[in-house]
Design goal:
Two copies of one chain form a homodimer. By secondary structure, chain A is α/β, with parallel strands linked by helices. Chain A has three domains: 1-78, RuBisCO large subunit, N-terminal domain (Alpha-Beta Plaits, 2-Layer Sandwich); 83-214, TIM Barrel (Alpha-Beta Barrel), CATH 3.20.20.110; 224-329, TIM Barrel (Alpha-Beta Barrel), CATH 3.20.20.110. Helices cover 43% and strands 15% of the residues of chain A. Chain A has 15 helices and ten strands. In chain A, strand 1 and strand 2 form a beta hairpin. In chain A, helix 13 packs parallel to helix 15. The model of chain A has no long low-confidence stretch (mean pLDDT 82). At the A-B interface, helix 1, helix 2, helix 3, helix 4 and strand 3 of A face helix 1, helix 2, helix 3, helix 4 and strand 3 of B. Strand 10 (300-302) of chain A pairs parallel with strand 3 of chain B, so a sheet runs across the interface.
């Protein structure tokens, strides 16, 4: 959002991010400190993540190195309910490192997994977790797996030692934690980037007696090709339109990447409806014709700041945008 | 999972991924085709993502270039309910590109956003969306914003033109879609990587009349420093323990990265409980002492495949693991 497009004094004073320092690290790299207003996070996990590295995650030459969080933010989210001390207490192990192992591979039956667990427990492993690849597949339903594994563990062990792996959306996650609890299981494994940070945080809040082990699956997802993730997969999951940073704007996607992304959104594909490509990110009025030439007319052109920057002439600029698009098709 | 650790013929035949081709692209790069079994996805969005690029996302020299999805998977997820044609139909625009703009910046009041929307609509913009930064913050609650914006649009425009931005976990997302519907709004913006793909897909299924515009925020999150994301932030959101790929194993994290990650999990920090670092990823028995020396005893050592590879001697290997850890502390 261009600063010059902001007319509200309150926003300029209280909301806009501030560059608090720039240090030249050499070799063309810079360390930049940006101050953000707590209010912008709404104290919600997803929105905090979005403020920290939402759009910035798309900038190919930007990395999020660290974040300092004020006390009220930390307090609002709350952190672990059990932590290492909780695992220690449950296991009765005060003064040594804990051991853990994993139940896998995928494809084993619940009985086979229970057998593995029993053998690991017999061997004295402290914590026995499902491989994160164990979800709710047909060959090993979550409920069947938890029943089979806990049946093979001593009741006291089930509470502190076995950690089944959760998957799915919030309702499914809740149901799985309840199943675990019904079997005396007090800890679980979940991949926050897979289920989403909001769901992860909601679960933690709703089940204070359960210990959560986080798994890093998908935590490095930037290297997915944009046409696959934003194009093909978002469409697969139901996106009627998909916004992406177009070439020549503020972001680094190439013409080729954008073309592939639009194609992935629109192309005939196993009978699915076509989605709408929405190129955006620093688009300006003077690029309308170029964009139309590149994307064709099956597109939603998105111009944000460049219109709002018009200030009192916003309507005029909007009209100009509408006209240029109408004229260009 | 080492193949030699798999004793089930059914798993080897039906579940294990297959390398279907390797092509040398030059300059040390290779294109590798891997075939995965549909059953491993459980036909659930998060688990599909996990199979495609869960752990692989952490491998610094691996990128997910593309994925071919069989018809039954595509059919199960279902794709867009409206797509570009739906936007066209609602807007009555059949034969040209559509226009869109965004309501921002954050910090404006609902009335101010409504004013912007009204002005954009007056200018003839087809689609007016909330900036994805508009969540449910104190200065612009979702319900207030939708009420204020729709009040400024003609009723017919509210259905097809305004797209408020959703945020939060599944219950919050559902409540927001219902609020939008109550105001005649039939389309929304949401960032799937922020709310989580399972939540995104659940929403799409539950609200077939609503059109969803996907936003790419966080879709490039790999460049977050691991100590921040897996250490500090996962802990902040409630992780009692956090698994990460330790140095010297299958993954590329350095000793320094792992040390920083463990420190972020354990260090005294604004009164939060310490989480448990769980280094993993190709750990073997012969590294127990080294790991203990490096991480100290406030750690959960995780060894999976290397134990399971023992086959019939699993119990023995597990015992050996337990013993080595006990002896090393």
């Amino acid at each position: 959002m261009p600063l010059e497009a902001i007319s509200s004094a309150a926003v300029l004073r209280d909301i806009v991010g501030r560059v608090e320092g720039i240090a030249d690290l050499g070799d063309g790299a810079f360390e930049v400190r940006v101050g953000l207003a707590t209010a912008t996070t709404g104290l919600e996990a997803g929105q905090l993540m979005s403020m920290l590295f939402g759009n910035a995650s798309i900038l190919e030459d930007v990395a999020l190195a660290d974040a300092e969080l004020p006390a009220d933010v930390v307090e609002a989210f709350g952190g672990p309910r059990h932590g290492l001390a909780g695992f220690r207490a449950r296991l009765g192990v005060a003064d040594r490192a804990l051991t853990a192992s994993a139940l896998k591979p995928q494809g084993l039956t619940p009985a086979q997994l229970g057998d593995l667990a029993s053998r690991l427990a017999d061997g004295g492993i402290d914590l026995i977790k499902d491989d994160h690849g164990l979800a709710d597949q047909s060959y090993s339903r979550f409920a069947d797996r938890v029943a089979a594994v806990t049946q093979r563990l001593r009741p006291a062990d089930a509470v502190g030692r076995y950690l089944p792996s959760l998957s799915g959306h919030l309702d499914q996650l809740r149901a799985q934690v309840r199943i675990a609890n019904d079997h005396g299981v007090g800890a679980v494994v979940v991949a926050p980037m897979i289920v989403g940070l909001p769901a992860f945080h909601a679960l933690v809040r709703e089940f204070p007696d359960t210990a959560f082990m986080a798994h890093p699956a998908l935590a490095g997802a930037t290297r997915i090709s944009p046409s696959l993730l934003l194009g093909t997969l978002f469409r697969l999951f139901g996106a009627d339109a998909t916004i992406f940073p177009t070439h020549g704007g503020r972001f680094g996607y190439s013409r080729e990447t954008c073309g592939a992304l639009a194609t992935a959104t629109l192309r005939p594909w196993r009978g699915l409806r076509a989605g709408a490509p929405v190129p955006a990110g620093g688009m300006t009025l003077d690029r309308v014709e170029e964009m139309l030439e590149f994307y064709g007319r099956d597109v939603i052109l998105l111009i944000g700041g460049a219109l709002l920057a018009a200030g009192s002439d916003l309507t005029g600029q909007a009209q100009a945008f509408a006209r240029r698009v109408a004229a260009g098709c």
